[in-house]
Amino acid sequence: FAKVLRSKPKWLTHARYGLFFHWNARSMPRSGLPKSYEEAVNDFDVVKFSSMVHATGADFIVLTTSWDLLTFPAPLKSLDKILPGNTTSRDLIADLSSALAKWNIKLMIYCNFRINAMGWKKEDRLIPGKTDSAFDKMLSIYKEIGRRYAGRIGGVWIDDGMGLYPYNAPFKAITSALKHYDKDIVVGYNSWVYPRFTDFQDFYCGEEGITAAAAVNDSNYLAKDGDGYFVSGPYKNLKATFCGLLEPGNWTHTEPDKKIPPPFLTAPQLINILHDAIIRKNVPIMNAEVYQDGSISNETFALLKAVNEAIHK
């Protein structure tokens, strides 16, 4: 049944690179006091943000939703029932999807609904069936996401696979719920650098950093001039992607009154990594720190514009 659920949309097969934006309830402004999450969501300028993404040449982005504080930038009834006050009145996902679509850029969303926030207790971990109610709550959220964003999002990047796998998580049910109204939604469960935890997914999340080694992966698993799907090894039949930070620090810009640091890599270094990845159709997803107003650092923007010029033009 995993093979029946699996999707291979053309946009992901042919994507050259994407961007990760850990913009969420903990994001800080360039200076001064942060806005409330509701205010930040309401004030997020999707037109300006999408224009910036277009200038970087990214084919798609991954935007965090339920990172750390388990908030979600939309009025999800299922989540609000479990964790009241963690949703917003504006549907930022829908608005951002529409704005990005004008540039032919896909939107994927990052989710991490932790079972301890769903009512799971540590003492239940070894008792058969005791985790079911927590996973039922989690599943209700994914069902609503699948229904609400059918035709609007390209995929769902689910973090903390190691926090799901040991407790017999219903991977089949979650993936089925997300794809029920739109089979082309791609799903990945982050296993960090470990082998996959389930066959019920479409791509390998590849949290290995934006490096030459991650771009090449293993030549026995991922051939040059192939279709970008692993032909053998622990990720066989999954779409190859890898992700990591562009700047030193955290995935999210959480420190107040602190400037986003300059990128690790020079333009020639990053371009070489991307060329190695493109040959294998191994898709990098590069995390750029972002301020609360949706802007990125001038240095990172200049780097990504140089990459766009080299890769696309």
Secondary structure tally: strands = 8
How far do the termini sit from each other?
42 Å
Order of helices and strands: HHEHHEHHEHEHEEHEHEH
> How many whole angstroms does the radius of gyration measure?
19 Å
Average pLDDT works out at 92
Strand percentage lies at: 5-15%
Range of helix content: 25-40%
Q: Rough shape?
A: globular
The biggest beta sheet is recorded as: 8 strands, parallel
Number of helices: 11
Stretches with pLDDT under 50, minimum 5 residues: none
Strand order of the largest sheet: 5-4-3-2-1-8-7-6
Structural class of the helices, strands and pairings?
A: alpha/beta
Describe the protein's architecture and organization.
An 8-stranded parallel β-sheet has the order 5-4-3-2-1-8-7-6. The mean pLDDT is 92. The longest helix has 17 residues, at 132-148. By secondary structure, it is an alpha/beta fold. 32% of the residues lie in helices and 12% in strands.
Give a quick summary of the entry.
The protein has eleven helices and eight strands. It is α/β, with parallel strands linked by helices and 313 residues long. Strand 7, helix 10 and strand 8 (283-287) form a beta-alpha-beta unit.
